UniProtKB/TrEMBL annotation:
It catalyses: a D-aminoacyl-tRNA + H2O = a tRNA + a D-alpha-amino acid + H(+); glycyl-tRNA(Ala) + H2O = tRNA(Ala) + glycine + H(+). It is an enzyme of class 3 (hydrolase). Keywords: Cytoplasm, Hydrolase, RNA-binding, tRNA-binding. This is D-aminoacyl-tRNA deacylase. One of its GO terms (biological process) is D-amino acid catabolic process. A Gly-cisPro motif from one monomer fits into the active site of the other monomer to allow specific chiral rejection of L-amino acids. The keyword Cytoplasm applies. The keyword RNA-binding applies. It comes from the Bacteria. One of its GO terms (molecular function) is D-tyrosyl-tRNA(Tyr) deacylase activity.
Length: 147
């Protein structure tokens, strides 16, 4: 399970020209689900996302989390984060969670996030989405769980 987080001034996700989710200052989270991921791992990763310190404190140091600031979180599924890219010139998706299982886990991630953080929005699993963002910094981190 991987989460590519970007500190944003704003972010939005649209499907077929309709904006289905948007936030102001906060985090855009692109979520990659791998084979073997489960609700327990999802809860751990979401807790890390919410507590990861990427926002400036009064001294300008990255010492505050999105939970501390009350910023928004836009969660978007992105299976391409699970691609194997070390060999060749074409990504392999053999490590990605199959779509039917991934949709169930993504929906659970959305429920978990809603329960933990009030200011959140979501992409639509499996949809052709257009994601727009203003990356603040730019600040981008790839979060992965160690077992």
């Amino acid at each position: 399970m991987k989460a590519l987080i970007q500190r944003v001034s704003s972010a939005a996700v649209c499907v077929n020209g309709d904006c289905i989710g948007e936030i102001g200052p906060g985090l855009l989270v692109l979520l990659g689900l791998d084979r073997g991921d489960d609700e327990t791992r999802a809860a751990r990763l979401l807790d890390k996302v919410l507590r990861y310190r990427v926002f400036a404190d009064d001294e300008g140091r990255m010492n505050r989390s999105v939970a501390d600031t009350g910023g928004g979180v836009l969660l978007v599924s992105q299976f391409t984060l699970s691609a194997e890219t070390r060999k060749g010139l074409r990504p392999s998706f053999t490590s990605a969670m199959p779509p039917v299982e991934a949709e169930v886990l993504y929906d659970e991630c959305c429920k978990l996030l809603r329960a933990r953080h009030g200011n959140c929005a979501f992409g639509r699993f499996g949809a052709d989405m257009q994601v727009s963002l203003v990356n603040d910094g730019p600040v981008t981190f790839l979060l992965e769980l160690t077992d």
